[in-house]
């Protein structure tokens, strides 16, 4: 099993500064300390690192990293070059600011273009477009910045963070509703963080990695639903089938 990643380390740090235990749904369930799924269905032994030419930076809203329903950690499970930071309105993480300035990276903020400030570059992603990788400097690694929180929190992070407003936006307008079943947003186009990452990988040209991440997300959804549905045999069977397919790839 791969070593602990950035979200594991951020989770441990956030726990260390907490003044009381986080009262998540299902808080009495005995969970794996890494995947945060019930210990009986821990998926850590199936986690594998993919070969990717991309990087991700998760900017997480306060307690988001503590939530068992958070899907941002799934990105770090598979994409080796993934970074994770807690968001602060008044004290941005200096390591995040430094990361955005590193010359080997080309940072993009993945966020709806409707929120772009005047003059901010918007990169529209439409169906059947050629891979975005063909439009940018191949010598620089794309660093996809994702705002990890509920929709209201993500908008707040964007509006209160001038350093994010300077980044070019990768903007999606999906035609179908999100399949994210755990925490629906108020707006129909809101997707789970891992789903957004999978869409971004596909748009960049890494379709195989996008498929793997979407499958890993589906396993996570079924496992979470199993824990919330009196251990439904149907959820367990779907999870096992998806795991078998994921492990075979």
UniProtKB/TrEMBL annotation:
Residues 28-229 form the DTW domain. SMART domains: DTW (SM01144). Keywords: S-adenosyl-L-methionine, Transferase, tRNA processing. Its EC number is 2.5.1.25. It comes from the Bacteria. Pfam families: DTW. PANTHER family: TRNA-URIDINE AMINOCARBOXYPROPYLTRANSFERASE (PTHR21392:SF1), TRNA-URIDINE AMINOCARBOXYPROPYLTRANSFERASE 2 (PTHR21392). This is tRNA-uridine aminocarboxypropyltransferase.
């Amino acid at each position: 099993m791969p070593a602990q990643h950035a979200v594991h380390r951020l989770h441990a740090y956030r726990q260390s500064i907490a003044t009381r235990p986080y009262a998540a749904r299902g808080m009495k369930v005995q969970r794996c300390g890494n995947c945060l799924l019930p210990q009986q269905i821990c998926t850590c032994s199936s986690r594998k690192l993919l070969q990717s030419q991309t990087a991700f930076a998760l900017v997480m809203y306060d307690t988001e990293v503590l939530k068992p329903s958070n899907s941002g950690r799934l990105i770090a499970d598979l994409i080796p070059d993934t970074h994770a930071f807690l968001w602060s309105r008044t004290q941005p993480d200096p390591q995040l600011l430094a990361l955005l300035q590193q010359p080997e990276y080309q940072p993009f903020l993945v966020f709806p273009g409707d929120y772009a400030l005047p003059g901010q570059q918007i990169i529209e992603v439409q169906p059947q477009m050629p891979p975005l990788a063909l439009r940018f400097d191949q010598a620089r690694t794309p660093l996809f910045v994702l705002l990890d929180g509920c929709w209201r929190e993500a908008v707040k992070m964007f509006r209160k963070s001038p350093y994010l407003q300077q980044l070019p936006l990768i903007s999606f307008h999906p035609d179908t509703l999100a399949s994210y079943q755990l925490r629906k947003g108020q707006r129909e186009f809101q997707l789970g963080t891992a789903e957004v990452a999978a869409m971004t990988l596909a748009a960049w040209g890494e379709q195989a990695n996008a498929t793997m991440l979407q499958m890993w997300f589906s396993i996570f959804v079924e496992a979470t639903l199993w824990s919330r549905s009196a251990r439904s045999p149907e959820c367990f069977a779907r999870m096992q089938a998806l795991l078998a397919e994921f492990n075979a790839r």
